[in-house]
Amino acid sequence: EDKVVQSPLSLVVHEGDTVTLNCSYEVTNFRSLLWYKQEKKAPTFLFMLTSSGIEKKSGRLSSILDKKELSSILNITATQTGDSAIYLCAGPLGSSNTGKLIFGQGTTLQVKP
Amino acid sequence: SAVISQKPSRDICQRGTSLTIQCQVDSQVTMMFWYRQQPGQSLTLIATANQGSEATYESGFVIDKFPISRPNLTFSTLTVSNMSPEDSSIYLCSVGTSVNYEQYFGPGTRLTVT
Predict the structure, then answer these.
(1) What is d(CA A23, CA A44) in angstroms, rounded to the nearest whole number?
(2) pLDDT confidence bin for A2, thresholds 50/70/90
(3) Which residues of A touch B43 (CB under 8 A)?
């Protein structure tokens, strides 16, 4: 059964802190692993990772995939209150190329001033 | 990425009624999906909306409860039928590909059933 597990489930930090969010996956048909940020209703796309060891960066956010360990991390440096959100990790669902995703439980990040 | 809109953005409905949610994309897309996010939970895939044929439902979701239409490559609807308070959720449509599984989401519909 495909599974995506995130940790921690929630995190409270202060502005300026660096945080690391974890995602582990067990999927039958790995194609990619995706990270999303959800602030209100709609998740917004952050990163898609397909190759091990290659870091993707966007400003203060970065992510890397470890295919051997079946895991990924999302780092946020110099956190700001605007980073407060739910961060979701997702992987392919099912054994054929259906395009479907399975999501982890999410990590709720609260950044205090 | 495609621009996706959903209508309505929110609604409060009475138990036993039905609500149809619309999802419009500004370009033709192969794959469209519908998700549900119950309060405090993550996203759960309801079904894949197939153009010109019946939707493909995930375990735990049935067509009688969540009928889906997809008349063309830019539009889909999800109906939540015979609603109960347990249907109170955010409903999201998304578009994606089977190549790398990258998906983009519409703004969501927040449904409250009283």
Answers:
(1) 17
(2) confident
(3) 43, 88, 90, 103
B113 is a domain residue: no
List, as ranges, residues 48-107 from A with C-beta within 8 Å of B.
48, 50, 88, 90-93, 97-106
Is the model more confident about A41 or about B14? Answer: B14
Q: Does B11 touch chain A (CB under 8 A)?
A: no
- Asked whether residue A40 carries a pLDDT value surpassing 90, the answer given is no
- Boundaries of every domain in chain A: 3-112
B41: domain range? 4-108
Q: Give the one of B42, B99, B108 whose C-beta lies nearest to A106's C-beta.
A: B42
Band (A51; pLDDT cuts 50, 70, 90): confident
What Cα–Cα distance (Å) separates residue B79 from each residue in A46, A60, A64, B87, B112?
A: 30, 40, 39, 11, 14
User: Is residue B85 assigned to a domain?
Assistant: yes
Fold held by A3-112: Immunoglobulin-like (2.60.40)
- CATH number, domain of B58, equals 2.60.40.10
CA distance, residue A91 to nearest chain B CA (Å): 8
Return the residue in B59, B100, B101, B111 with the most chain A beta carbons within 10 A, the one to mutate for interface testing: B101
Q: How many domains does chain B have?
A: 1
Amino acid, res. A92: P
Using alpha carbons, select from A103, A19, A31, A33 the residue that is nearest to residue A64.
A33
